[in-house]
Amino acid sequence: MKIYKYSLFFILSLCLFSSCDKELVVSPQNLLTDDQVFSNKSAIEAYLVNLYNALPIEDFNYGATTGFNAWPDAPTAVCCLEAIRNVNGNKTSVGDGTWWNWWGGAYTAIRNVNNFIGNIPSSTCVSNSEKNELRGEAFFLRAYYYFGLVKRYGGVPIIKTVQNYTGRNLADLQVPRNKEQEVYDFIADDLDSAVTLLPKTSIKRGRTNKYVAFALKSRAMLYAASIAKYGNLQLNGVLGVTPADADKYWKASFNAADSIMESNKYSLYSLNSDPALNFQKMFLDDGSTNTECIFAKDYTYPDKAH
Q1: Which residues, given as ranges, of the chain have pLDDT below 70?
Q2: What are the contacts of 283-288 at 24+ separation with CB within 8 A?
Q3: What count of Cα atoms within 13 Å lies in the side-chain half-sphere of residue 142?
């Protein structure tokens, strides 16, 4: 009887330290590796769609903690439709900055776009010209994410590469806040890269192009110039922009806007003689005749609904 017990124990031990360990190493079936994503054109497209969906656009469709499309089901909602966004805005329970998802959500998106920028050059399923355009879109998206942060928090940590926690590198991941002006300069640099790489016409409606990048740069530089002119430097520059640089940012904003106007690609919506009717129809246009729209976020039921 004792011999049988010891034999059984020996067999179980062999199982634990031989064949059984192979069964424990199972690749997850619901996750794709970077190699799998960036070797498949459809997967790259899906990745990019997710990056666009994370844009911090104030579209009355952004819910606290859960991101987009959350408010209709909020159990504690006391307002309805646009009212709840306008009343609560981004001023209630700001706390550590994470409750409204502008901070935590933005850095998740930034990590994703950094991963995209790092992997797309080695992709084997898209041409070099397509890679350049995709990189241009990614630079635009990253600039948009940072613009959403800097106008709410001032100087924030600038992260250009994917960070990975190993269990021993916590100090390396604790990146200090950059100065607010450094963030605006970083946004300008990313948008300059986007302008260089992007085509003049969007690949699809809802995707960026050279002039969309110019438009975002004009807006961001207008913020920087206004802060330099009318704001104050605080916390050694973590908040504020150097007053002497105001004209530099005014000029950058003007030049970016001028590039759009000089292209003659966009013009005011004026299909009707009645200006009031133009204002109404502009928002109902499917995009085919709307020459005023530079960048749109579409809602297509049931894939993307309000």
Answers
A1: 1-30, 59-104, 305-306
A2: 287/205
A3: 31
Residues sharing a CB contact under 8 Å with residue 216, sequence separation 6 or more, in sequence order: 140, 143, 144, 147, 191
Whether the CB-CB separation of 178 and 239 falls below 8 Å is answered with no
Tell me phi and psi for residue 137, to 5 degrees. -60, -40
- Burial (CB < 10 A; 0-12, 13-18, 19+), residue 12, is exposed
In angstroms, rounded to a whole number, what is the distance separating the alpha carbons of residues 295 and 213? Answer: 10
Residue keyed to tokens 């916590």: 170
Question: 145, 194 in Cβ contact below 8 A?
Answer: no
Which two tokens mark 53? 């969906």
* CA nearest neighbour of 198 among 129, 286, 298: 129
Phi, psi of 168 (to 5 degrees): -130, 5
Give the pLDDT confidence score for residue 306 in this predicted structure. Answer: 60
What is d(CA 183, CA 158) in angstroms, rounded to the nearest whole number?
Answer: 7
Beta strands in 47-186 (DSSP E): 62-63, 67-68
Q: In whole numbers, what is the pLDDT of the chain averaged over residues? A: 82
Q: How far apart are CA 68 and CA 50, in angstroms?
A: 12
Place of tokens 């992997």: 119
CB 219 within 8 A of CB 254: no
Distance separating alpha carbons of residues 144 and 150, to the nearest angstrom: 10
Q: For residue 60, what is the DSSP state?
A: S
